[in-house]
Amino acid sequence: MDKFIIKGGIPLKGEVQISGAKNAAVAIIPAAVLSRDVCVLDNVPSISDVEVALEILAYMGAEIKRLGKSKIQIDSSRITDGTVPYDLARSTRGSSYFLGALLGRFGSARVPMPGGCDLGSRPIDQHIKCFEALGAKADIQHGIVDISADRLIGTQIYFDKVTVGGTINALLACVCAEGLTIIENAAKEPHIVDVANFLNSMGADIMGAGTDVIKIKGVRALHGTEYSVIPDQIEAGTFMVAAAATGGDITLKNVIPKHLEPITAKLRKIGVYVEIADDSDNIRVVGRSKYQSVDIKTSPHPGFPTDMQPQMTTLLTMAEGTSMVTESIFDTRFKYVDELRRMGADITVDSRVAVVRGVEHLTGAPVKPSDLRAGAALIIAGLAAQGTTEIEDIYHIERGYEEMEVKLRNLGADIVKRYYPDDDKLRKAL
Ligand code: EPZ
């Protein structure tokens, strides 16, 4: 297996180009199924969750052409079979978007229940509720969601809880439904707006994305398009926190500052200098040696994003005083705390609240992330720690960060990716 080996204590310096947004790309790729024409996507991140989405498309008969490092052409005209392979589907959460896309295109879909980061219970009851509201029948047997509808008819959908995936799947299923659909209590994340903009560039008629009420007038068919995915606000936030944690000075290129407002606000509150030039797509972040503790409560956009909670908590382990971090989106998103404790962090967790008491510094250690953002947090901890940190199971990280170690090395970090033959195989071989 691969590991990251990090020698900590080096302030990050220089410029980093932010890649396309994972959580937009993994929805836009399935959304291309809705058109029988060719779609060309740009600024697509090279990450394994995107590879899985493309593999699923290819399995169903779509033709995928790579036009460049982050440019992809998708021709789904020859897709006939709305069935998604089990193992591929359960390796990501984004596979659930094939439900809405295939239902919207063919009136039916058979998609295994999704997987993704283990953050506690992650049902899709709200997705199913919206498909049924549009007139579909849904059945879940043997781990597979089977949905079908003679006709999809526009309706009023009210989400019992704010759900990014549910909101996106509702858009995919209703853009070609008959009549008007109104989605209430919709999620407002930047990637929701990006998916809506992508669909509108294909001829959909969606208004209000980014607010909690989205209105969609069904159209007869969608045409092909050329579209560029928005920059990844969580990758950007991760690098901002890494610069802060190492007392560095970096400039992030290709960002949308507005999408980073909740993160920027918190970083400024603890004492990080963040500079945003007017109508620029750059952000400069300058760290210091000590920070103020601050309380954090994750909530749906425009609140503080749950996908930045592990990274920010890691920074707070080195702040002066005590911080309270409340995770209000997922049941269990503090598994990484045990690994931070190996590095000297002083954190106690009670259900959805972590109490973080600042320590002088962290020390490097062998650690193992349980999910994507836990991996990002452990990288930040390793960059800031005294000594060497070895991070195992880096496949979690490579699901959502493009060439993370290359970008960090270009900022002066001492980080390498090493291949270690699987210990069991090694033992057997010896
Ligand atoms: C998306 O997950 C993201 N994943 C997650 O990012 C992100 O943390 C999350 O949105 C919140 O922003 C992708 O976009 C691929 P939700 P999703 O539906 O859609 C509950 C990362 O690190 N819920 O907004 O699964 C659910 O259990 C990943 O990039 C229901 O109860 O999130 C959770 O508690 C991790 N029923 C809450 O709502 C449903 O039908 C929010 O989930 C759907 C969700």
Walk me through this protein's architecture:
It contains 15 helices and 23 strands. The chain is of the alpha+beta class. The strands form six sheets. It has a four-stranded mixed beta sheet, with helices on one face. Strand 19 and strand 20 form a beta hairpin. Helix 1 packs parallel to helix 2, helix 4 packs parallel to helix 6 and helix 8 packs parallel to helix 12. It is globular. The mean pLDDT is 96. Ligand EPZ binds next to helix 1, helix 5, helix 6 and helix 12.
Keywords:
430 residues, alpha+beta, 23 strands, binds ligand EPZ
The ligands found in this model are: ligand EPZ
Radius of gyration: 22 Å
Helix content: 25-40%
* Strand segment count: 23
Structural class designation:
alpha+beta
Taking strands numbered 1, 2, ... along the chain, how are they ordered across the largest sheet?
A: 21-22-1-23
What's the N-to-C terminus distance? 17 Å
Count of alpha/pi helices: 15
Global geometry:
globular
Taking the sheet with the most strands, its summary is: 4 strands, mixed
Q: Uncertain runs with pLDDT below 50, 5 residues or more? A: none
Overall pLDDT? 96
- β-strand percent reads 15-25%
